Amino acid sequence: MTKLTLGAYPHMLGFEQLERLLERTAKSGNEGYPPYNIEQTSDHSYRITLAVAGFSEADLSVTVEDRQLVIRGRQSDDGVERVYLHRGIASRQFQRSFVLADGVEIGAATIENGLLHIDLALVRPESVVQTIQIRKG
Predict the structure, then answer these.
(1) Which of 25, 66, 72, 124 is the residue whose CA sits 20 to 30 A from 84?
(2) pLDDT digits (tens, 9 = 90+) for 88-112
(3) Cβ(102)–Cβ(123) under 8 Å?
C-alpha cells in the first residue's frame, strides 16, 4: 500500500508541518495509561480529564511543547520500604501527548478526587480578506 502524502495535492500549500505532526502523533506511543476522557464543554472549549490516582500536584507536569500538550507523571519515592500482598494501583511514570491545532489555548489545570482536569479553548481568529494588487510586469 502506498503512503498518501499532502504533497500529492498541489492546491494544499504549506501543510508539510501538518503532515509531520500527524506522523509524530502516530509514533508517540501513548499507551492506555493513564486512562483519559476528552469532553466538549461548549462550542469552543474542551476538557481533558486524566485518571491520576495516587499522584499529587508535585508529581505532575503539564507543558506545551511544539504545539503539543504534554502531561507527565512521576511519583517521588517516599523512602518507605513496603511489602505488597496485592498491588492493583499503578504507580508508574507516564507521558501523554495531545497535538494542538492553531488557535487552541490552554486554560486552567486542576486536580480533584484523583482526576486531573485541563481546560482548553479554541480561539477563532477574525476572518480577514486581503486584496492583492496586480502590477504590470
Answers:
(1) 72
(2) 876 789 999 998 988 999 999 999 9
(3) no
